[in-house]
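Please, structure for the following, as tokens.
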Amino acid sequence: MSVSAVSLSRLLRCSLSSVGWSARCACMRDPTMPGVRWNSTRLDADGSGRPATWDSFGIWDNRIEEPILLPPSIRYGTPIPQISLSKVGCASHIGRRRDNEDRFQVSKLMHNVLYFALFDGHGGPQAADFCHKHMEQHIRNCLEVETDLQAVLSEAFLQVDAALAAELQMYGNASLMMVGTTATVALLRDGIELVVASVGDSRALLCRKGKARKLTDDHTPERKDEKHRIRQSGGLVTWNSVGQANVNGRLAMTRSIGDFDLKKSGVIAEPETTLTLLQHAHDSFLVLTTDGINFSMTNQEICDIINQCHDPTEAANVIAEQALQYGSEDNSTVIVVPFGAWGKHQNAEYTYDMSRNFASIGRWS
């Protein structure tokens, strides 16, 4: 269907008044609008049992009421809902650890760019604290000279790593060269362009049509490409008593911010990045999680549990609590960012299984 900018603008405007994330104007018929070819209203055009003109996002009980962003919707040719930071759910639980070394942040960098970040510290909280304090500003600085969000995040990660090294060296304490952190950062521009960068084993998942879609891959010595870089750099990959691979017998990840004693052994701060254009009719949410959750729950299980929740705040707390119930002893932190299909893909058949074997899930599943 070819729709002019003017026609699309008229289509979108009729959904601005409290339509939720439901483009109800898509199922209205306006024969006066030129260049718009309307489908018939016969049933089951797509095998769904609904009329062919059923609205793009649908109607369901716990959709989130947000207005449509008109300029980007016209630019991309599809209804794009506003993502409000007040609707984002966050939770961080200490678990059975003495201290919580996880850090998270949610903010608006520019009028059209949102920022979501998780940092899971190890060896002490210093690296995670530094990223929590400085990562956002480094990204802001990069955005002033670069529009490619993947390039922005890659450069910001390297800058933060270098700045952390300079600060720790001032203290002259060798033990501080062993502190580090994971970093998983997501930028959302114009409500549709989602870019994720990560180092370490914190994760980002997108729930699309009810299924978990990985946006990150854990940086561990088990990965063939990561193991090759470590060995080429002169590092060693060893396995502990429970079969977990480590770099030089110390670190269970091959990329991180910090861990300066292992830089010459191939541990790097350069992130892997992904770019995804959201499909708000099918995408329910983005979820960022630390390993306290990842090692006790599968990706699909995380999505299934969130899909049972009424709102993102409830979802974040349920996920963190559920990880603890499933045997996680680590800090558990989660950020849930709702998208257009929030609440659309509930799985009534899913139930919490409290008898699962912890060793059969997580990283080694």
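Residues 149-169 form the longest helix (21 residues). The chain has two domains: 1-81, 85-364.
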